[in-house]
Specification:
By secondary structure, this protein is mostly helical. It has helices at residues 26-38, 40-43, 58-64, 69-84, 94-105, 109-116, 127-132, 145-158, 170-184, 198-217, 224-235; strands spanning 6-7, 17-18, 21-22, 135-137, 140-142.
């Protein structure tokens, strides 16, 4: 890390800061996670209408158990789109078209697992790449990086896969360069991650992995999800 020093505040409700930014600490990660769970603006998206907290994972777990793949896939797409505000419906029949695109490469659960376990960088025909440009609006191609990244994150999480994906979000993308400078001593353009394409996503993911690795090597137990939560919530 560079010359920035941690300012650890005694009050439990205050965030640890570094270089003028909320620090990537275990305390901040736990604090932000707890706040999100009770913040009425977001908490309602963590549960379904029946109060079930694991509703995002339900369709993935169902398809894993051998139940209707296509039906559960469509349900997963609907839930992720709604709970993460990824705006697939700005495209006519956006959810159905996204489902059909995935089904064109993945006829069943095993095909989906095989696709998601592959390396995006090495496989130029990767499902992630295909999903990225699956939809169009009347104004032309729509790059669905936010939805695609979150779909892959949730799918690998709930299907217990080895694929390494990170949620892409404009708020995180806008602030990540500052964290790269603080934690990795690398100065990069402030707009480095704002162009939505596969190359941007690969660089974005690489830097997040490097930060996680450095923190973990310093006995700070932080995940990429923790980083996403801290940067996103404190800058939303």
């Amino acid at each position: 890390m560079n010359e920035n020093k941690f300012i650890t505040l005694k009050e439990a409700y205050e965030l640890d800061m570094i270089g003028g930014y909320p620090a990537l600490t275990e305390k901040n990660a736990l604090f932000i996670k707890s706040v999100i769970n009770i913040d009425t603006r977001y908490a309602k998206y963590l549960k379904d209408e029946n109060g079930n907290e694991d509703f995002i994972g339900a369709p993935f777990k169902s398809m894993k158990n051998g139940k209707n793949f296509e039906q559960n896939l469509e349900e997963a797409i609907k839930i992720i789109n709604k709970s993460n505000h990824t705006h697939l419906l700005v495209c006519e029949n956006g959810i159905e078209k996204m489902k059909n695109l995935i089904c064109s490469k993945c006829k069943n659960y095993n095909d989906l697992v095989n696709e998601l376990n592959q390396d995006i960088d090495k496989n130029k025909d990767h499902l992630f790449r295909k999903m990225l440009t699956a939809l169009k609006t009347k104004n032309g191609q729509r790059i669905n990086l936010s939805f695609v990244s979150k779909f892959c994150v949730y799918a690998t999480k709930y299907l217990n896969l080895k694929g390494n994906y990170h949620k892409y979000d404009k708020v995180v993308a806008s602030n990540l360069p500052s964290y790269v400078e603080i934690y990795l001593n690398k100065k990069i353009n402030k707009n480095a991650f704002l162009t939505k394409n596969i190359d941007t996503y690969l660089k974005y993911s690489k830097y997040i992995d490097e930060i996680v690795e450095k923190l973990n090597n310093n006995n700070i137990n932080i995940s990429s999800e923790d980083i996403d939560n801290i940067i996103w919530y404190t800058n939303k």
